[in-house]
Design a protein that fits this description.
Layout (H helix, E strand, L loop, with lengths): L10 E5 L7 E6 L6 H4 L11 E6 L17 H23 L7 E6 L1 H12 L6 E5 L21 E7 L7 H13 L3 E7 L8 H14 L3
Parallel strand pairs: 2-3, 2-4, 4-5, 5-6, 6-7
Antiparallel strand pairs: 1-3
Helix pairs in contact: 2-3
Length: 215
């Protein structure tokens, strides 16, 4: 299926000007949100010298369907288009001289799924991988490691125990895949938290950002 819905969507930035940036954080918004929305996290994870990059999804949706649904040709076309947006965001950082190992790739909900899919389909040593209330796409019992290595990549996964969209079991299965691919994984489940970014997840993401841009 030849569609590329996200190809012409904008990419927003915040934080350090590109010419002064020494590290980057790519932030992928969730369903129904926007780059401007996800960039509100910058206030919580700000570091001097960091370029924050937030690409947009067409219609504020990265792909149709839920996390654990079987893969379909139509959804896969949307996911491939989303990965193209991530590629463009990473290229923007690379143009300033920021390598992948100085770049944190992070997202919330659908954005977390896109981040996970990108990291496992195009694995290398990233500065960090932050999955907030999200994980790999596909049935929970069918998530398997992919070819390639994430060796040395710190990964943080956070989910609420009351999340109705992506449960702890799916996040745990995603964590297992990342570990099998060599990532250094920390996975946390937070009590009394639904489908949202809680304080614990902010702290986990902040640790990743601090790894590429220590104060």
């Amino acid at each position: 299926m030849s569609i590329d819905p996200h190809a012409d969507e904008p990419i927003r930035t915040a934080g350090a000007p590109p010419q002064a940036a020494e590290a980057a954080v790519v932030l992928l918004h969730g369903r129904g949100d926007s780059p401007e929305g996800i960039l509100r996290l910058v206030d919580d994870v700000y570091r001097r010298g960091v370029l924050y990059v937030a690409p947009a999804a067409a219609g504020r949706v990265w792909y149709p369907g839920g996390f654990a649904e079987p893969v379909t040709e139509r959804r896969e076309a949307f996911v491939e288009s989303a990965l193209g947006q991530v590629e463009r965001a990473l290229a923007l950082a690379a143009e300033t001289g920021i390598a992948p190992d100085r770049t944190v790739l992070a997202g919330f909900s659908q954005g977390a799924a896109v981040a996970a899919e990108y990291a496992t389909r195009r694995p290398e040593r990233f500065g960090g991988l932050g999955l907030l209330a999200g994980g790999l796409l596909g049935p929970t019992d069918a998530l398997d490691p992919r070819d390639g290595s994430l060796a040395g990549t710190p990964a943080f996964l956070g989910v609420g125990d009351e999340d109705p969209y992506v449960g702890p079991a799916h996040v745990a299965a995603t964590a297992d895949v990342l570990r099998a691919m060599g990532a250094e994984v920390r996975a946390e489940t937070y009590p009394d938290l639904g489908h949202a970014v809680g304080d614990g997840e902010i702290a986990g993401l902040n640790d990743l950002v601090g790894g590429v841009a220590p104060e």
